[in-house]
């Protein structure tokens, strides 16, 4: 653990605003943290809960009802629970690995410990691309919200640009301790918006896109019969809904008390899973196959405007957290990597600020370009979950557990060691399968959607709030 760090703050200290000067500390990642520079170790466990929930809750929940439409209610819920169990275990492994290896800040550090320089470069590059794509989904969903509220007041490409500018400004705040307020705002606004939409779909006569020439009855499916391609892309979307895993490394690294990580994790995962199942099931039950993607558009024009108006701060917050959390956006990942070992990492120097703003700007521009290039929300979500979500949440975490426990367990094997070793290998295999199959299915869907959806081509003015 880092030296001179207070590992036991009280709940009152955690909830209160830190008003005194930051103590001089020595951290295994950030080096010397002084009163003059930013304090990167200033996130309490309640703030950790908010950051964890915001890295997952927001964009993922908006795709859950459509996932249930593809798989059916029962298989869909079972898949949600299965992914929840795997990612909860993966996230738990992150906490224990961080305690065992305090020098680890991001998943590229894990890659170097496991596989040397090649592992660092592969996972470092992959996580950069992953966070860029995640921020793309945030920009895209924000543009959908702006289209909905304004009744398509201008070109969608313009709304994506506006979202990028707003997110860039907020993401330029340097530390998680100072940006965690956006997580609380984001969770609250999106939860409120989703609840409004959920209640509204139960009160409406029929979904807005359902036929008007006959008596309405929801065509929800208890068990669906999707093709293999549709099933695997649906599961990939569930993975995306839980794929905040790589962002948990920097969250743990910036906690004042990393030993409270597991407490925050369990609260986050239980709450997220309960919300996904409850909201997804209710919206799908009342809308059936006419459920919208994102789900906030399922309750008619007026409710859609209200829900998106309330959700907009949360949609922006999703992008901001993605653009900030060390890997959930390559911004701070690149920043720490470029300045690690240098006095400029924790000093308010010109090089410090120039590097920080340069990284943030580069990632924001990259996200804007991709968000404009793939304007269909559900397709983008499934592609991220398949290609990069599994690679960030499954395979590395299985390898991490084996790295810390394989040699010691072989010397004194126990039943627990055999079971956890088998589980770790199973996670690696499942992740690899989903990555290949899900990516294939998602690409086919993107091509098909581009041909079928008139006007929804890249860089178009197409109203993406009417999906």
**CATH superfamily grouping:** Hydantoin permease
Tally of contiguous helical segments: 16
Strand order of the largest sheet: 1-2
Tell me about the largest β-sheet: 2 strands, antiparallel
Measured by DSSP, the beta-strand proportion falls in under 5%
At the first level of CATH, the class is Mainly Alpha
Shape: globular
Which range best describes the helical content: under 10%, 10-25%, 25-40%, 40-55%, 55-70% or over 70%? 55-70%
The domain count comes to: 1
Unreliable residue stretches: 1-24, 326-332
CATH architecture: Orthogonal Bundle
Structural class by SSE content = mainly alpha
Number of strands: 2
Radius of gyration: 22 Å
Mean pLDDT: 80
Summarize the structure.
This protein is mainly alpha-helical and 467 residues long. The chain contains 16 helices and two strands.
Give a verbal description of the structure:
With 467 residues, the chain is mostly helical. It has one domain (41-209, 217-466): Hydantoin permease, CATH 1.10.4160. Helices cover 68% and strands 1% of the residues. The chain has 16 helices and 2 strands. The protein has a two-stranded antiparallel ribbon. The longest helix is centred in the N-terminal third of the chain and has 44 residues, at 107-150.
What attributes does this structure have?
membrane; Hydantoin permease; globular; transmembrane; AA_transpt_TM; L-amino acid transmembrane transporter activity; 68% helix; two-stranded antiparallel ribbon; 1% strand; transmembrane helix; single chain
